[in-house]
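Query structure, 110 tokens:
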């Protein structure tokens, strides 16, 4: 991103580093959820990894079409993983919280 008016060089450097870090996080989510398999870009499907220069766009498009129940479940899993839980533990915690709130496990209809 270009330096904004009034930004010091240090602020511009921090902003660029922060945007690069966020892009890596978004790409990691796109790859982890295998969103690339739905991507219209052949390069992403071929490499089985997000190749877009702005992976947040892919992530946002995917979440826009996702059922609300799945969004809630993923948010709980990501929160648990951020807190240090293993993938299996994060899934268990997310299911338990959804049962406590909704009275049913996620994907009971499936």
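Result returned for the query:
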């Amino acid at each position: 991103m270009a330096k904004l008016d009034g930004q010091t060089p240090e602020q511009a450097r921090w902003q660029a580093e922060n945007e690069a870090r966020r892009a890596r996080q978004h790409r990691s989510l796109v790859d982890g959820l295998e969103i690339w398999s739905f991507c219209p870009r052949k390069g992403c499907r071929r490499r089985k990894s997000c190749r877009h220069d702005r992976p947040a766009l892919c992530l946002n498009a995917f979440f826009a079409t996702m059922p609300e129940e799945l969004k809630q479940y993923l948010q709980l899993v990501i929160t648990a993983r951020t807190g240090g839980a293993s993938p299996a533990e994060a899934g268990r915690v997310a299911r338990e919280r959804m049962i406590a709130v909704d009275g049913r496990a996620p994907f009971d209809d499936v």
